[in-house]
Structure formats: structure tokens, C-alpha cells
Amino acid sequence: MDYQTHEHDVVVIGAGGAGLRAAIEASAAGVSVGLVCKSLLGKAHTVMAEGGIAAALANVDNRDNWKVHFADTMRGGQYVNNWRMAELHAREAPDRVRELEKWGAVFDRTPDGKILQRNFGGHKYPRLAHVGDRTGLELIRTLQDHGIHRGISVYMERTVIRLLKTGERVSGALAYDRERGRWTVFRAKAVVLATGGIGKAYKITSNSWEYTGDGHTLAYDAGAELIDMEFVQFHPTGMVWPPSVRGILVTEGVRGEGGVLRNNTGNRFMFGDIPDNYRPQTAKDEEEGFRYVLGDKEANRPPELLTRDHVARCIVREVRERRGSPHGGVFLELQTFAEWYGKRAKKFDAAEHWKKKLPSMYHQFKELGGLDITKEPMEVGPTTHYMMGGVRVDADTQMSRVPGLFACGECAAGINGANRLGGNSLSDLLVLGKRAGEFAAKYAREQNSAGTVPAEQVDSAAKWALAPFDRDASENPFKVQQDLQDMMQDLVGIVRKEDEMLRALDGLEKLRARAAKVQVTGNREYNPGWHTAMDLHNLLTVSEAVTRAAILRKESRGAQFRDDYPKKDNAKFGKVNSIIAKGADGTMQIRLEQIPPMPDELKDAIRAEANGVLPDELK
Question: What pLDDT, on the 0 to 100 scale, is given for residue 347?
């Protein structure tokens, strides 16, 4: 088989924020770095991140510090997080944000010139450093501009289909060129996965076409473990109408700037469902919530800024009980806050205020949906947004159990536990992306060579990938993917039941059989049918992992809501993670594993933010 070969000390697969940050750090350590993009450089899904970067800079409220951020993250994750990851993240996030500023990022500013921070769900204090509602775009631009001078080799429009191994360690990867269909072998002493999430396994998602579970599956097939795969985050506010913007994310920043949720009776329903552990920090009435939005340190946050998993379930409840909007969501509106504030401010132009605070939201929905959010309510509902589960890695080094294989960003797991707080993803990819690049470079320097190219692995993978061209079959890859998305949305979505998930497992077996019979026509140049045929393996693998883990966890916790087990069961599941690995016979194996005890210093940080009471999961 003909293929190009490129050799680097470290190969980073994925060029979003995590991949770029890892590549920059590895290059700074003096090793040769290759960066592989599934699409074009600068088009990664990170550019769609709108709200901000969570870091305890304490610029807006000087009571904030890393311990409060850590406690918020653990509480949001229902205490099944990897506490060491959460600690490192909270400690190091401020330095990573200041570093980004040093490299040229232009953040919004306070009146005295500091980085401005906004309110977000689950965060006790204003914590999100932001650039309007275009923070992800600024982050990517800054990292690209900083990294371009480091001699990093960039390979665009290449999709990796197999990790290559020499013995037990990773020694490279096989990719195809999406433009010409040619093969590329990357030899490497270390590989970093930074491929994002799994959103395209679901029908309604805020994720781009690239999010097909590539890194999760590459690692799983190479022998790494997956963790917390039951926890799929459904962002509570994706657009449900008009059709031209269906699934597109409405940033949490809309609620952080005063947006409120209402059902079809006009009721602000979130005030009626506040969890006990958040009640002391939640506003008692509308007046207090709006004062919090304006920065009143004596006020508590509005209930719309509760954690994403809870807000999403409340919206689903309103729709199920026939109190939803005409198109299956609820209403999110800015007009109530504008009216309230307009009565108190000497000069307040609501339209100009929102255009300045939320420029992308305003222009996006005006141009694509004909909706003026400064005057009209939005119809919103949950959309598949983020994958808390992923590759199990060491907290300090980000290396998996496969020597030489590292992972960071959304395709790695541990920091978020059962639910991610908004803004933590961007600080996560900066903190742990840096660590992945740092320790991948260190590992690479300790190796004598990248190892030989395992020709039999390359030939086997290429033969598998090309098989759809040679089949005399009638299965269409797009139809198989559509049926998978419909099934996962209906049976393994926000609200789950055992009988439905068992049906999903049966359905996955049938879909896997159909995927083995898909036929592709035409040639290999820019052939989307062929690309989808290969993506099906990844989508089916992560869908099975989500389903099996969700069945095993017989409780409701964070993003996992079991209608047949609606309560948390701390005795059985409060101190365990689900772990998935590929068995010797090729089948998916799953087990529960105890979470290591948390150090007393970190317990004290949590106790201090919980009125002196330690949560049951940590006792």
C-alpha cells in the first residue's frame, strides 16, 4: 500500500484549543511536533465557545479563589470528579488566562482595566473571563498566532482512523487525506489525543460535524480505558425554532446577563425547583436575582444559573407537562431584565446594551433566523453539548494506561464528574492541554526512537477503510447514522429508563450489522459517504459505551437522569466511577471502581463552601 510518512517526536491529533495548547507546550520543550487537523486550521469547534474561561482571578469579586472554584467544580460534578484534576485545574487556571493575555488575547475589561469576569451557572462568584460572546474564537486566534512561529508542522484535512503500536506502546497513527483520499502514516514517540466530543451520535446537538467520538474510539481500540461515559451534557438552551437555527447554542451568558426562562403560562418556573444544596446561594425573588446580575455582592444568583443538568431537566419537565412553547421548548427572554433595569438607570438603551454584551447571539439569530433577541423571546430546549466521559488519564501527566498515549480536552475525562460547569471547558483545555504537551514531550525525550512502522497494522486498517467501495450492498452510511442519532436521542437521551436502554443495545447490534454492509460509490476524493462510513465505527463504539455505563449506574446523578431510579444512591454509586475497556475477545467490558480518598485540605475547602457540612459522597 502506498502512503506518505511523517515522523515527529510528538503528534497531536486535533487542533482545537486543547490540541493547540498541547502542541505549543511540546514545541516549547524543544521536540518536533506534528499537529493533525480533521478540518482546516482555525475551524475547530472551540471557536463556537461563547461564554468565557472560568478562572478564579477575583477581578470582579475579591472573595473568589482557587478553593472556591474547586469546591464549585466538585459540587457541580456531584463529587464523582477526579479531585486531583479539579484541584490542578482550579489552581492553575488563573495563570493560563494571564498567559493567554500575554500572548495577545484581548479580553473585555473592568473600568479599572482588569480582565472582566461574568456570572455563569454553578459558579459562586463572577468567574468567566470573556471576549463578548466570542471567547472561543479569540482563544483559537491567540493560540494559532502564538504557535505559528514555533515550527509546528500542521497537517490539515486529515482524519486519523487507527493508532499504531510497537509492542505495548503507541508509535504513530494512520490517517487519510480528506481532499485526495491518500494515506499518511505518522511515526511518533508520543501521541496526544485532543479530538473533542461525541455530539454527532445524537439527533439534536450544538456540535459540529467533526464530533464523532474519534479520540474516544482510537484510545479504546488501542487499549486505553474510558471513564464516566454515562455522563453526556445536554445544554439547557439550544434553539428549537425557527428550523434554520435548530440546535444552535444559546450561550449561558444570556442568562448570566439577565435572561429568564418562562413556560407558556408566563411562569418563571425555575424559582419553583431549587435543589436544597443550592438554595442558600440562590435568589429568593426576581429583584435579588437581577441585583446579582448587576454585581451586588449581597445578592444571590438567579435560579436560571443553576447547573446545566438541573436546568435542562426542568425544561424537559415543563414540555412533558404541556407547559412548553409551541415548538417543544420554553421561552428565554431578555425583556424582563431590560424593563426592570430601565426603570432604575438614568440612560439605558436595551437594544444597544444587548448588542454590546451579546454580539454573536444578536447577529447570529437576526441573520439566520430573522429573530431580534432584544425584542422577542427565544424558543429554547436542551441540545447535546458536551461529553463529560472520555479517555481515562493520569491527572498530573494526562497519559492513559497505554504508554505514550496522552489525551486532553473533551476527549479526556475526570475533571467534570457527573456534570460540567459552564466555562470550565476552556480553562480545562488550557490547563490540561499544557500538561499533556509538557509530559508528552518529556516522554518522547526518554524514548530512543519512534519504533518501526507496523506494516500489518497499516495494511489491515486501510483494507477495512476501503471495504465499502468493494461491497455489493445497499446500506447507505448516511441513513445508518441518521437511525443511530434518532435512537440515541429517543432511548439514551436526557431522561433514561432501563427497558429503553436495553432496546438501544439491541438496536446498536443491528446498526453495527448494517454498518458492516454500507456501500460507497465514486472515488476517494472528497467523498462524504466514505467519510461517514468510517465515522460509523466511532459513533457506534461511543454510543455503546454511553448506553452500557448508563445502565450500570442505577441512580440519577448530574447529567444522568434515570426515570426508574430518580434519586441519588450515595451508598452504591456516590464513591465510584464506571470504567470501560476492550476485552481480549473484542467485546466491551465495564466495571465500577472506587474513587481514591480526597485529602483533608480539599475536603476542608468543600466544607467551607457547604456551611460546614461535608457531602455524603466524601464522608
Answer: 84
Which cell is 192 given? 496526544
Residue 445: how many other CB atoms lie within 10 Å? 14
Strand pairing category for 4-13 and 183-193: parallel
**467-501 per-position pLDDT tens digit:** 999 998 889 999 999 999 999 999 999 999 999 99
Among the four given CATH numbers 3.30.930.10, 3.50.50.60, 3.90.550.10, 2.40.128.110, the one describing domain 4-54+66-109+132-233+385-454: 3.50.50.60
In the chain, residues under CATH classification 3.50.50.60 are: 4-54+66-109+132-233+385-454
Q: Which three cell numbers stand for residue 74?
A: 466538585
62-104 residue pLDDT tens: 999 999 999 999 999 999 999 999 999 999 999 999 999 999 9
The CATH architecture to which 456-574 belongs is Up-down Bundle (1.20)
**Which amino acid, residue 106?**
V
The C-alpha angle 522, 524, 525, rounded to 5 degrees, equals: 100
What does DSSP say about strands 226-227 and 330-333: parallel, antiparallel, or unpaired?
Answer: unpaired
Which class does domain 235-383 fall in?
A: alpha beta
Q: How far apart are CA 123 and CA 60, in angstroms?
A: 13
Residue indicated by cell numbers 454500507:
518
What distance in Å separates the CA atoms of residue 31 and residue 39, rounded to the nearest whole number?
24
Q: According to CATH, where is 3.90.700.10 located in the chain?
A: 235-383
The x, y and z cell numbers of residue 52, run together, are: 468565557
**Catalytic residue annotation:** 235, 255
Three-state DSSP state, 151:
coil
Residue 372 is classified by DSSP as -
Percentage of the chain with pLDDT > 90?
Answer: 82
Q: Please tell me the pTM assigned to this model.
A: 0.92
Peptide bond into 242 cis (omega under 30): yes
CA 366 vs. chain centroid, Å, equals: 27
CA angle 19, 24, 27 (to 5 degrees): 120
